């Protein structure tokens, strides 16, 4: 959709996932067997027909750049528009911008060159299947200055405590934005705003020495913007801790949850040409999600195995997440464990965590 420009703002996404973010930013953390967290927001933008997307990053983005490449899986390898990975530029000695405003100010050419009239702003911590075309149409119908995508949750979970919450009236007009712990209407970090108004608010924030666009321009709302709420009703997971990462990942072993995320509209990711998973005669796999390239000779139950995992004969894995290219040697026992990519367990080890506190091994660990 040429009316929209996509902004994926990772500036305020800290290293919240402990060992999983030692070597990468949160947006590059693997999820659901063969994806990265950023794939879901990128795919939502692709499915909405957005042809120009800026990814604003500050640190630990080498892994993210390797994953995104030229944007081809999301149809963003274009002569006009496409995907732009945009770290802040500190070469201007007169620049006084700070925080995420630094990204927007120092990359004004991205906004000026983009043909879209409206900015769709999102992060990667909220995994959704939001229909951004429908959000855009809602924004136009209401005549709002800003439209926030919100999710009413049935049950408050620990990860919701840090989320921003939204109150609105019966007409969908936002009357308060806050972080009350017991509030169930969650802001998903997606909003739409007309491009000219967005840039005007960026400049106003910089002139007032502010550092956080959403907080200072929208939540505090000093300009008296008309803010509307869009009620999103699909799949929603907040990934802002190891606990939320593990629990939401394990929930995908539930067919209903998996179908909500993947059944309608494609989720694209970096393409890797590998053979289908291979099950040896000694393999015993139950209630698990296995990606292509796996070779399994042991027992796997209630677990998620990413691409290229090798489970040797006699190994037992239960309630665990095993990332790309890990090797699990003979006789190894893993229960409630998260192994980052390229971990090698030579054999005979026993690693046991708890569902509320999984045992984690960082990338490339060898035991």
Describe what this molecule looks like in 3D.
The chain starts with a strand and ends in a 6-residue tail after the last strand. The protein is globular, with a radius of gyration of 21 Å. The strands form 7 sheets. A 7-stranded mixed beta sheet has the order 5-4-1-6-11-8-12, sandwiched between helices. It has helices at 38-47, 62-68, 99-106, 108-113, 132-142, 195-207, 213-219, 242-251, 255-262, and strands at residues 4-9, 30-31, 35-36, 52-56, 82-86, 118-122, 126-128, 146-152, 165-168, 174-178, 185-194, 227-232, 236-238, 278-279, 284-286, 289-290, 295-296, 299-301, 304-305, 310-311, 316-318, 321-322, 327-328, 333-335, 337-339, 344-345, 350-352, 359-361. The chain has 2 domains: 4-262, Spore Coat Polysaccharide Biosynthesis Protein SpsA, Chain A (Alpha-Beta Complex); 278-361, UDP N-Acetylglucosamine Acyltransferase, domain 1. The chain is of the alpha/beta class and 367 residues long. Strand 2 (30-31) and strand 3 (35-36) form a beta hairpin. The mean pLDDT is 94. Helix content is 22%, strand content 27%. The longest helix is centred in the middle third of the chain and has 13 residues, at 195-207.
